[in-house]
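[job 0412] stage=complex_fold ligand=iron/sulfur cluster status=START
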Amino acid sequence: MPEFFDYIIVGTGAGGGTLVHKLKDSGKKILVLERGEFLKREPENWDTRSVFKEQRYHTHEVWKTDQDKDFHPQTGYFVGGNTKVYGAALFRLREKDFEELVHHDGISPKWPLSYADFESYYTEAEKLYFVHGKQGDDITEPHRSQDYFFPPVSHEPRIQELHDKLKAYGLHPFCLPIGINLNEKDPVNSPCIRCNTCDGFPCLVEAKADADMIGIRPNMNNSSIQLITGAKVTRLLTDESGTKVIAVEVERNGALEQYHGDKIVLSAGAINSAAILLRSVTDKHLNGLGNSSGLVGKNLMKHNNAAMLAISTKYNPTKFQKTMALNDFYFGDEDFHFPMGHVQLLGKSNKEMLTEDAPFFTPGLVLEEMASHSVDWWFTGEDLPDPNNGIEIIQDTIHIHYTPNNRTGFERLMDKWKHILNQVDENAHLIPHGVYLGKIIGNEGLAHQVGTLRFGTDPKTSVLDTNCKLHDVDNVYVVDGSFFPSSGAVNPSLTIIANALRIGDYFLKQASQ
Ligand SMILES: Cc1cc2nc3c(=O)[nH]c(=O)nc-3n(C[C@H](O)[C@H](O)[C@H](O)COP(=O)(O)OP(=O)(O)OC[C@H]3O[C@@H](n4cnc5c(N)ncnc54)[C@H](O)[C@@H]3O)c2cc1C
Ligand code: SF4
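[job 0412] stage=complex_fold status=DONE, emitting structure tokens
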């Protein structure tokens, strides 16, 4: 008899890793299937050239664009998924993000649940992922049942100065909520050392709150949890009725294997989870499993993103720069009554990053000057769900279709920011931040992928129900970023984590009945 598990969890990123944590004391037999391996601690973790130019921690898998062009997606297959390299900016969506919201270029749809349904799970998520922050300064902050469990990360002097200038200008800069295991009161014993290689890099000293360190590593000696790495899930196989999955097909060491369980939870990332379902074709599911709505893989969102260098005459020796954010224009302003988006600081760029995209004749000294006199900014605007944006499997290859939308408010946000910085900060000039262009931001940049299996109450207009179970199948759930009906304009991971905790809670309640 093959071994039978209570839960099979596919993928160990923000969703899957968190669910493992939530179910760790359930007493249930859990199998975790992860296609990647543990990310090695090595000097390259903090080496700009290895990380950004050689893309050491991204897959070499080939996907295709609309124009049939090959590209390597900016995504990593490791235990912990993309949280191994994320910037750990862990934001709650705003209350209005869960409602229908009118944008200049279209409508952001209402979620089937409200912010109140997520609030306690956001609180649990912030505690679990060491989120440092301060309640009260973000003018769009949603209701909180309690303040952050960890104090805000302090600004270094150049950022504090900028903070004070922006405040004096009438804006509302606030401490960026971030998931790092930092103790500024006791730096000698603090696991995090506030280095300058955090955003986009793995953490060499394992102090970043990623899904591996939070969900997987602490459970390696838990006898009810079995992790198999190097296990790429290819398809889900159903019984004759087509309404129940009886086996998970895995490619491992060049051979196909099957694993059996009661509940199957996909958390392979918004694109790969949709791909697994689209590949699970049978005579009862000609368009893939769970796809009676025709929506599996559709409505892919990934945010309107931009990275900019603000270069001024002021020296910027900041090491850990990702400490400040602003939401003054999140829902618009007095001149423009539609959402524009979110502004936050990026990790500090260095000369090597700028070298990547500068013309070959640019002297090193110029790049050095640029890096040491710049402040790095990141802008996020909401992109709207569009059924023409999504993924397709053609001859077993993932094709990404994506046409940017809802750009009006976002362009306005960047114009505004250029104007503001130029006024408040030593005539600072904003220029595009080359190293992120195309890699995170272009159509191939899929860091904030969400929405391919949206949840809802109507099986005709959604793929998952409100417990994130496939409407069409009795025992398949999804806990990664696929479930989002809209993308909001803040980073997605805290909402993915909170939702995984919510679904875990549902499983625990079901089990105790
Ligand atoms: C450079 C960078 C910076 C970022 N910064 C931030 C930030 O500051 N804040 C924020 O909120 N978000 C950030 N993000 C986005 C964040 O990392 C993702 O939103 C989050 O990790 C998504 O979680 P997930 O569970 O949906 O998928 P992932 O974290 O991508 O996890 C998917 C997992 O499934 C595994 N997998 C995939 N396919 C299969 C398969 N077929 N079989 C088995 N396993 C499979 C993968 O190896 C991976 O472990 C950043 C991303 C990047 C790339
Ligand atoms: S800033 Fe802290 S958490 Fe981030 S990589 Fe450096 S040591 Fe790790």
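The first helix runs from residue 14 to 23.
[job 0412] exit 0
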